[in-house]
């Protein structure tokens, strides 16, 4: 039985090579997309699944409002963890997590030739200060030391195995215990434990753990603001593990009662407050509102969008299969009639046709499996770090492909199987296999499926164009400052000598190729930000709000070409003595005209400082966010960032020479430090990495969907021409021109493409409108974009049609009619 089944299937495939190739190609594209997207989605959704009692672990985050403006923070005031331990109930574990501030340099003594020489490891990532309870959250395997005592005392450190091998490559694990590591020449810690690397997808990615008690014994007590309740740093976070059965809402209430106890201004009214909120562990990897320090996030809507893309591509491939199989049914009618006459039942025929579909799908699955490593490399920019294709270690890949093959075979093959198995043997053998009503019904179904294909393709085309248009708008629009030919770099924060920075700035100013040099805070638009509480001294009520604070020397505004609308620039100073404010802040303070704000006083850190100027608004973030209130001042001693405007030129070679000279000056003062710089326009481009990746993925999805749709269209055209060959030849003999023939053959298909556009356009408009709502500043949705996309799809369809229609129109009719 099975031998006969395989023979029949392969004969059918061999007899219809073109249709078989089209089906396998379409299915391969759909299955390949589904496999890669499955790997990505499975990888991202697999985050934070290894933690012990993960459903009871929460991160303490903050929700805020300042004059009705919402804010969110993953960081919390540093003394919170101690207060929870001492005053809260229903909490099983409290885990403070302080990220190491700045760049960490670790010095380790290594014995070489009988003398101890320190091995220096610069810019070490993933170092945290925490307590012993950290290890109760995660299933660490201890290679040396114990979780109870290793971080109990100050100046103790636990290392992951990978970090231990980096620091002590030739030492045995047990011999590393007791070794000492010096951090930034500030303090020395003793290794008290070694744990095996988790090698799992988790939000807890540290590999070097310094005892939390160390902070209180060093200057970090002030650096981390360990006794400050009304301010916090991005480095500070707290996790808690609730006791079994504890109510989350009651725990949140306890935390906010503690907050209100130590910070009387935590809650003023419903428009001005700061509140703690417990964020569940499984939300941390996906919630951008509470983006943690150096935390990699995934975007759930994007993942769902990827799943939709995979589903669409599979649907397109299934539609192709259904269309081509039903259109090609006539070639198998006699075979079906003979099989039924010989005793085959309808059930056996359905099994035969579904089996053939399954064979084609399995073939497509094998091709996709072989292509997966290549595709992962090709789309490396979209693949999450750590995602690998290792099928022997990932048996679920085989299960997914098998399940996918069954589902696709069922969706693709069921309708054609019932159509083919339903032929009456008497009609078939009398060459009456197609009654008018049946063929009309099947043709109508094929048209609906073809329109569905082109609706999806049109939607992707319009979406791709609009997303690309918004990205171009964001990158090229005026952000309120100069962004071309500007490079930025920073000097080590460990350098406390301000004269070093002054010398470096002076040297840079005198380098050929440098137009302007400035020292200050970050560039006008960057991922970092500093906020402070400021109020207008002239107000009758308490109007204190969170305002963004930026600073720089007197060249800062000139370098970035930020215009002053009223007043003057700030004067050079090592302390904050006066403010420039932006237009938005001036308006929020009630000044209709910029000049009205001049001379007014702002309350800042217990002092009243004058407003000396109002500057033009600039976007300090991406276009996703509106411009907020901002103040600018001079603060020379607190500046570690350098900004350089390069001289314009036609080629980039001289820029390289200028940057090389800047690097020499830098190394003259900081010989042991690495020099790294970045162009401002590249920094801004990174704001839209997610959108750029979305546009690129949409581009691929568009190309594939159009390709699959055109494959199906090509197959239907081939079938139509084959069934209308006699009609075409007779028309040509009666005087029809090539143009007439092409028009007759193409008319129906062009109508289907136009109907698809009419359906796709409003759907695409709605989807783009909702997507653009995420941008505070966005491009317009113009009607001509839709018209252009529709015309483009029509041209693609006509080109596809012309491949076969022109060939049929110019064929010699005599050859065909001789065979009749």
UniProtKB/TrEMBL annotation:
Keywords: Cell membrane, Membrane, Transmembrane, Transmembrane helix
Alphabetized Pfam families for the sequence: FtsX, MacB_PCD
UniProt membrane topology term: Multi-pass membrane protein
MacB-like periplasmic core domain sequence ranges: 20-257, 449-657
Transmembrane regions listed in the UniProt entry: 21-41, 303-324, 349-376, 396-423, 444-467, 697-721, 749-769, 781-801
Domain ABC3 transporter permease C-terminal, first and last residues per copy: 308-422, 703-813
Localization (cell): Cell membrane
Gene Ontology annotations for the cellular component aspect, listed alphabetically: plasma membrane
Highest taxon in the source lineage: Bacteria
One MF annotation (Gene Ontology) recorded for this entry: transmembrane transporter activity
Descriptive protein name: Duplicated orphan permease
Organism: Parafilimonas terrae
């Amino acid at each position: 039985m099975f031998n006969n089944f395989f023979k029949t299937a392969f004969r059918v495939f061999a007899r219809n090579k073109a249709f078989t190739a089209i089906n396998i190609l379409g299915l391969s594209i759909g299955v390949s997309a589904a496999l890669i997207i499955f790997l990505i989605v499975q990888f991202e959704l697999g985050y934070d699944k290894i933690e012990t009692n993960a459903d009871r672990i929460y991160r303490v985050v903050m929700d805020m409002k300042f004059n009705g403006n919402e804010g969110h923070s993953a960081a919390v005031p540093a003394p919170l963890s101690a207060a929870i331990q001492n005053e809260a109930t229903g909490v099983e574990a409290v885990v403070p997590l302080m990220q190491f501030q700045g760049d960490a340099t670790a010095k380790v003594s290594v014995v070489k030739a009988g003398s101890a020489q320190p091995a220096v490891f610069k810019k070490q990532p993933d170092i945290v200060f925490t307590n012993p309870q950290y290890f109760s959250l995660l299933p660490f395997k201890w290679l040396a030391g114990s979780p109870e005592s290793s971080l109990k005392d100050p100046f103790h450190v636990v290392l992951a195995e990978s970090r231990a091998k980096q620091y002590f490559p030739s030492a045995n694990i047990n011999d590393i215990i007791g070794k000492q590591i010096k951090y930034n020449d500030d303090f020395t810690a003793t290794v008290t434990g070694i744990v095996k690397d988790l090698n799992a997808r988790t939000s807890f990615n540290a590999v070097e753990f310094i005892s939390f008690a160390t902070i209180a014994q060093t200057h970090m007590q002030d650096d981390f603001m360990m006794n400050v309740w009304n301010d916090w740093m991005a480095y500070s976070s707290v996790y808690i593990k609730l006791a079994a059965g504890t109510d989350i809402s009651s725990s949140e209430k306890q935390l906010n009662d503690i907050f209100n106890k130590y910070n009387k201004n935590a809650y003023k009214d419903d428009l001005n407050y700061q509140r703690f909120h417990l964020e569940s562990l499984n939300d941390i990897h996906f919630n951008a509102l509470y983006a943690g320090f150096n935390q990699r996030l995934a975007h759930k809507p994007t993942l769902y969008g990827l799943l939709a893309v995979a589903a669409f591509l599979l649907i397109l491939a299934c539609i192709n299969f259904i269309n081509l199989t039903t259109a090609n049914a006539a070639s198998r009618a006699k075979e079906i009639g003979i099989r039924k006459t010989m005793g085959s039942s309808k059930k056996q025929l359905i099994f035969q046709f579904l089996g053939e579909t399954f064979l084609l799908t399995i073939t497509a699955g094998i091709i996709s499996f072989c292509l997966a490593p290549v595709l992962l490399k090709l789309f490396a920019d979209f693949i999450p770090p750590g995602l690998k294709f290792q099928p022997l270690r990932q048996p679920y890949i085989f299960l997914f492909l098998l399940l996918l093959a069954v589902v696709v075979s069922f969706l693709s093959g069921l309708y054609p199987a019932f159509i083919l198995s339903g032929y009456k043997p008497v009609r078939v053998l009398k060459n009456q296999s197609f009654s008018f009503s049946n063929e009309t019904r099947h043709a109508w179904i094929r048209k609906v499926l073809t329109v569905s294909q082109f609706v999806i393709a049109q939607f992707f085309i319009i979406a791709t164009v609009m997303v690309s248009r918004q990205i171009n708008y964001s990158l090229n629009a005026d952000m309120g400052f100069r962004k071309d030919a500007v490079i930025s770099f920073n000097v080590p924060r460990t350098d406390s000598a301000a004269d070093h920075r002054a010398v470096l700035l002076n040297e840079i100013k005198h380098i050929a190729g440098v137009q302007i040099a400035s020292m200050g805070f970050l560039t006008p638009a960057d991922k970092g930000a500093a906020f402070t509480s400021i109020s207008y001294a002239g107000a009758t009520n308490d109007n204190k709000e969170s305002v963004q604070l930026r600073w720089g020397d007197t060249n800062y505004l000139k370098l970035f070409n930020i215009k002053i609308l009223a007043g003057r620039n700030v004067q050079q100073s090592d302390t904050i003595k006066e403010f420039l404010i932006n237009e938005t802040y001036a308006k929020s303070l009630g000044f209709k005209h910029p000049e009205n704000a001049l001379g007014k006083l702002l309350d800042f850190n217990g002092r009243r400082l004058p407003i000396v100027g109002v500057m033009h608004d600039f976007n300090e973030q991406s276009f996703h966010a509106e411009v907020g209130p901002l103040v600018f001042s001079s603060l020379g001693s607190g500046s570690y960032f350098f900004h350089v405007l390069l001289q314009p030129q036609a080629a980039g070679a001289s820029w390289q020479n200028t940057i090389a000279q800047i690097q020499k000056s830098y190394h003259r003062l900081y010989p042991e430090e690495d020099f790294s710089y970045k162009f401002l326009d590249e920094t801004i481009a990174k704001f839209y990495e997610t959108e750029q990746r979305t546009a690129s993925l949409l581009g691929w999805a568009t190309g594939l969907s159009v390709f699959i749709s055109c494959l199906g269209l090509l197959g239907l055209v081939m079938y139509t021409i084959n069934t209308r060959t006699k009609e075409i030849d007779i028309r040509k003999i009666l005087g029809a021109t090539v143009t007439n023939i092409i028009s007759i053959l193409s008319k129906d298909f062009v109508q289907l493409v136009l109907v698809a556009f009419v359906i796709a356009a409003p759907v695409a408009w709605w989807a783009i409108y909702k997507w653009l709502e995420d941008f505070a500043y966005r491009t317009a949705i113009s009607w001509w974009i839709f018209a252009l996309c529709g015309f483009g799809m029509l041209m693609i369809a006509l080109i596809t049609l012309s491949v076969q229609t022109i060939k049929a129109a110019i064929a010699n009719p005599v050859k065909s009619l001789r065979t009749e």
